[in-house]
Design a protein that fits this description.
Blueprint: H1 2-14, H2 20-50, E1 55-62, E2 65-70, H3 73-88, E3 97-98, E4 102-109, H4 116-126, E5 129-138, E6 141-146, H5 149-161, H6 166-169, E7 177-178, E8 185-186, H7 192-200, E9 211-218, E10 222-229, H8 237-244, E11 247-249, E12 252-255, H9 262-268, H10 273-279, E13 294-298, E14 301-302, E15 306-318, E16 322-331, E17 335-339, E18 344-355, E19 358-371, E20 376-383, E21 413-416, E22 419-421, E23 424-426, E24 429-432, E25 438-440, E26 445-453, E27 458-464, E28 469-476, E29 478-479, E30 486-487, E31 492-495, E32 507-513, E33 516-518
Parallel strand pairs: 16-20
Antiparallel strand pairs: 1-2, 1-4, 3-5, 5-6, 5-10, 7-8, 9-15, 11-14, 12-13, 15-18, 17-20, 18-19, 21-24, 22-23, 24-32, 25-31, 26-27, 26-30, 27-28, 28-32, 29-31, 32-33
Helix pairs in contact: 1-2, 3-4, 5-8
Length: 524
C-alpha cells in the first residue's frame, strides 16, 4: 500500500490553490481513480505472482458434446490409439479411423477437478470405427463394399474365369484391371509401348480345329466410389461372387388362353421350341395345354454377364447338288444314278460371341474352299407302264418300306373322305378329334417342299417316298422340317392347325402316285 499512499500525497499538494468545494470534488475524484488504478496493479501483481500455482485441465468433447475433464489430453489420445490398434487386430490389413470428432477446451484452475478413468470409460462406449472402402456398382446396382481396388480386380477375374476354359485362362494375363487414376473399372488396355512390342509378337495362327479367346468383358458398366463404412460391412471375394451370381429379374409366365398351343406361345415370345422346352422340362413338344395353365417364357436374368469373343477354325463338308435328267429308258418312278456325287470341303474361320459360356452369335470371318463338291447326276424315268389288265386282287398297295403307311396323327376320326363334296372334289381325307396335334410322316422319304402355299392349303408339307409316291399334309399351324430333309416313318414333322382355307383345326392328308391323287384309305 506504500505506492497508494504516496500517490495520494502528491495529489493533495497540487490541490492547495483550488477553491475549497471544487478542490474537494476534484480531490475525491482523483483519489478514486488513482486508488482503482493502484488496486488493479496490485491485484495483477498478485495474480502474476501466483500463476505458477495454477493447473491446466482439459474438457473433452465428443462430436460437440461434453464428455468430461482430464488432466492431460495425451491420456485421451493414447487411449484412442490403443483402442484403434486393438480393433485393427480383428480386421488385419485395415487401417481404421475413429468416426467421432474428438476436441478439447483447456482451463487453468487453483484446485483442478478431473477424472481420467471415468472419461476413458465413457469414451470407450461412444467411439466407433470406420475404414475407407471401395463401393462397387454394376449397371447402377450396388454389389457391396470392398477393402481396395485390388480386391475388386480379383473378384472380377474370379467371376469371369468361371466361363473361360481352364486351358485358355493362362493366355489372358489380366482379365480385368482397375486403373489407379480413376474411379471406374476398365478392361485391361496395353500402353503404346506394349502395342509396339505386340506388333513383333503376333499371336500364333490358328490351325483347323483350334479356338482362342480374343476378348473378355462384362455386359454392364462398372462404377467405383470411395466411402467410409464399418469394417464388418466389407465383403470378401467369395461373398462378392455370391452377390454377382444372384438373379435380378423374376421369372415371366404366360397363362394359356383358348386356342393357344406350345408353338404359338414360343413364337409370341421369340423363343425356339428348344428354349421353351428347356424352361418347362415337364412339357413335351406335343403336350396338350389346358386353359389357365401357366407356361414359363423367361428365366431369371443375372445381374451381369461375362461376354467373351472366341475365334475358331473348323473344317466342314460341302453337300453336293443332285441333277435329275429325264429319260424314256426308265419307267415312271424309276431312278438310276448316272454319276455319283462327292462332297466337298471348306475351312471356316468363325467369330463367336458367348454370354456366360452360352453362344449367342456366330459370324463367318473368313471362308476357304479346300475341295469343290461334285454334283450327282440321276436319271429319272418318264416311260409310262402299260397295264394289260386290272389287278386281280384288291390287296392294299405297298409303301416304299414294303408295308402300309403309318397313321399321320395321334388317333382321331375322319371327318371327310375322298370324293365329291359340295359341288367339287375332295382329293384327300380330313382328320380331327386327335389326342394331341402332332403330325407324323406316313412313310420314309425326303421333304420336297415345306412352307405356306396360297392355294388354300396353308402351311403344307410334301414328302417324296422315292417310289413315285408322295404324301401331303396341309393346314398345319407349325412346320418342324425343311425342304431336302430326310424323314423317317412316324417322325414328328409338324403341328395340326387351321391355316389356309380351313373350317377348323384338322389335317388334310393326300396321297399321290405317279402324280395322280389316290384314296389314302387304300393304304390302311
Amino acid at each position: 500500500m506504500l505506492l497508494e499512499r504516496k500517490v495520494v500525497r502528491i495529489i493533495r499538494k497540487k490541490a492547495i490553490s483550488i477553491p475549497k468545494k471544487r478542490a474537494n470534488r476534484s480531490l475525491l475524484k482523483k483519489v478514486m481513480i488513482t486508488s482503482s488504478l493502484a488496486l488493479g496493479l496490485s491485484i495483477g501483481s498478485v495474480h502474476a505472482a501466483e500463476n505458477d500455482d495454477l493447473s491446466k485441465i482439459y474438457h473433452v468433447y465428443v462430436s460437440g458434446e461434453h464428455l468430461g475433464t482430464v488432466g492431460d489430453k495425451e491420456v485421451v489420445e493414447t487411449f484412442i490409439e490403443e483402442q484403434v490398434n486393438k480393433e485393427e487386430q480383428n480386421y488385419k490389413g485395415l487401417n481404421l479411423a475413429v468416426n467421432e470428432d474428438i476436441s478439447y477446451v483447456s482451463e487453468f484452475a487453483f484446485q483442478p477437478t478431473y477424472n481420467n478413468s471415468k472419461v476413458l470409460e465413457r469414451l470407450s462406449d461412444q467411439i466407433t470405427y470406420s475404414v475407407k472402402a471401395q463401393k462397387l456398382e454394376i449397371g447402377g446396382e450396388e454389389i457391396g463394399y470392398f477393402k481396395d481396388k485390388e480386391t475388386i480386380s480379383e473378384l472380377l477375374k474370379e467371376f469371369q474365369s468361371q466361363f473361360i476354359p481352364e486351358d485358355q485362362t493362362e493366355d489372358l494375363d489380366e482379365l480385368y484391371t482397375i486403373e489407379e487414376d480413376t474411379e471406374e473399372a476398365k478392361p485391361n488396355q496395353d500402353s503404346d509401348e506394349a502395342k509396339v512390342e505386340d506388333q513383333d509378337e503376333q499371336p500364333e495362327e490358328l490351325s483347323t480345329g483350334d479356338s482362342r479367346i480374343v476378348d473378355v468383358s462384362l455386359t454392364k458398366d462398372i462404377e467405383l466410389t470411395v466411402e467410409k463404412v464399418k469394417p464388418n460391412e466389407l465383403l470378401t471375394v467369395e461373398q462378392g461372387l455370391q452377390m454377382l451370381e444372384k438373379d435380378t429379374v423374376a421369372e415371366q409366365v404366360h397363362k394359356i388362353e383358348d386356342g393357344d398351343y406350345l408353338q404359338l406361345v414360343a413364337k409370341e415370345y421369340d423363343l425356339s421350341m428348344a428354349d421353351i422346352l428347356e424352361l418347362n422340362p415337364d412339357l413335351e413338344e406335343d403336350s396338350i395345354l389346358q386353359v389357365g395353365q401357366e407356361i414359363k417364357v423367361q428365366d431369371k436374368e443375372p445381374i451381369v454377364e461375362v461376354r467373351t469373343t472366341v475365334e475358331e477354325i473348323v473344317e466342314k463338308e460341302m453337300d453336293y447338288s443332285t441333277e435329275y435328267v429325264e429319260t424314256n429308258d426308265l419307267y415312271v418312278g424309276e431312278k438310276e444314278v448316272k454319276e455319283e456325287g462327292q462332297k466337298g470341303k471348306k475351312k471356316i474361320h468363325y467369330q463367336i460371341v458367348q454370354k456366360n459360356g452360352s453362344e449367342v452369335e456366330r459370324k463367318i470371318k473368313e471362308e476357304e474352299v479346300i475341295k469343290e463338291p461334285v454334283d450327282e447326276v440321276v436319271l429319272k424315268g418318264t416311260k409310262v407302264r402299260q397295264l394289260k389288265s386290272k389287278p386281280a386282287t384288291k390287296s392294299k398297295p405297298k409303301s416304299s418300306s414294303g408295308s402300309g403307311f403309318s397313321w399321320p396323327t395321334a388317333g382321331g376320326i375322319i371327318t371327310s373322305y375322298m370324293g365329291p363334296r359340295g359341288g367339287g372334289y375332295h382329293s384327300g381325307i380330313d382328320i380331327s378329334g386327335v389326342s394331341n396335334r402332332t403330325i407324323y410322316a406316313a412313310e420314309d422319304g425326303v421333304v420336297s417342299s415345306a412352307g405356306y402355299q396360297n392355294n388354300g392349303y396353308g402351311n403344307r408339307i410334301v414328302i417324296n417316298h422315292q417310289n413315285g409316291t408322295k404324301t401331303t399334309y396341309s393346314h398345319l399351324s407349325f412346320i418342324h422340317v425343311s425342304s431336302g430333309q430326310k424323314v423317317s416313318k412316324g417322325q414328328a414333322i409338324g403341328v395340326m392347325g387351321a391355316t389356309g382355307n380351313s373350317t377348323g383345326v384338322h389335317l388334310h392328308f393326300e396321297v399321290y402316285v405317279g402324280g395322280s391323287a389316290v384314296n389314302p384309305m387304300s393304304y390302311y
